[in-house]
Amino acid sequence: MSARYLLGFDVGSSSVKASLVNAENGKCVSSAFFPEKEAPIMAVKAGWAEQEPDSWWQYAKQSLQKIMAESGVKGEEIVAIGISYQMHGLVCVDKDLKPLRPAIIWCDSRAVPYGERAFAQLGADQCLSHLLNSPGNFTAAKLAWVKENEPELFSKIYKIMLPGDYLALRLSGTVNTTVSGLSEGMFWDFKENRVAQFLLDYYGIPASFIPDIVPTFSEQSVVSAAAAAELGLKAGTPITYRGGDQPNNALSLNVFEPGEIAATAGTSGVVYGVLGNVGYDNKSRVNTFAHVNHSVDSPRLGVLLCINGTGILNAWMHRNVTFDMGYAEMNDLAAQAPIGSDGVVIMPFGNGAERVLQNKELGCSVHGLNFNKHARQHLVRAAQEGIVFSFCYGMEIMGQMGMDIKKIHAGKANMFLSPLFRNTLAGVSGATIELYETDGSVGAAKGAGMGAGLYKDHNEAFATLEKLQVIEPDEAKRSEYLSAYARWKDILSGMAL
Asked: Do 284 and 128 touch, CB atoms closer than 8 A?
């Protein structure tokens, strides 16, 4: 019997990555991404961000060609395909399933007024109890913008979809979507467990625009003969998994159950936790979507906290304060300062408005600096502590929603490379941190294996996930960490929150 392989795609805004995973041993045999330089994002006006959907198809095709050539794997050896994708985008297609316009992607802000108006006119109670979020700048609001500003184009729309839905369409010729995907676009009503008709009615969006709904883990469609010929795959290969990038990152880290957290800390930082009941934050400071394993009988909600001022603050410190040393040396320098940075406190909010602060733009600020006793090690430590404290501030909101956070899963990358950052996060939160080698396209491939029934559950699917390091809270220093965090929160509370 020949080996069986799983294919995963990760459709990002900078590139599309493809990975092949051996279904038997869970090992990735080849990965590639295109383009090698960042994919273009069109900004016709300030605040706009668009990409051509067909470019994702071309990038996916190039990535696939490279990994098939490098690995020697044949198309007939691939038994299932999974897709991860950039969330909140809008693709509009006509009756011939051709895109009517460039996709409006996640970082496009033109729809903000449409979401704010809907929230004000429909009311917070209606929106939060049914959608679990404000309509915000999500896919439904983007479509409302198209309706008002491009009415002729709007009249030609046959179906709307998310970026991952579009790649699945190109692979299969079939249009469908998932509950998890609909929830991230504000199209899912959690109270009624159906498409959010009240929001469609408010915006004047026909229900027929919404594609058929398929389970996240299932045979959603199969590779068409035309796509098979173009890609070198076998016609009939099933597409068995689809998830947005943040839910998929959690899946890639084997985060499925209530109280588990997936965290990333790049330029911006994300804490994505699983909630075991349908709930929301009444101030909409975090976003709540259906997780990949959500069901009515066994609710699994992904609560997403985003902190814009994360690695970007650490990089600013590196460029402007410790420019004469590498990041590892910078981390060693910061560790010379005591917990709490001897009274120096930094608010890391210098990268735009923060949703966790109810969309206020406080900027980055330094507090308690004494020219006679503080040096740059105090500033660098205070910056990393400030980032951690902002994470913990958001995690407290998750706790108020009923999430009992005991474990944080993260990739060993970016800020998690800093021992000071890791120890502070464990010390303040009281949670154990587990660091892994992970990748979104590999996670999508393993998700495909789950959807195809090759694994009995997620624990078997991710049994080979390599745990690189475990960081336990230092109980002897816990009170020092909590005291520093309390000082940070006191200052934040005095900043007109």
From this structure: yes
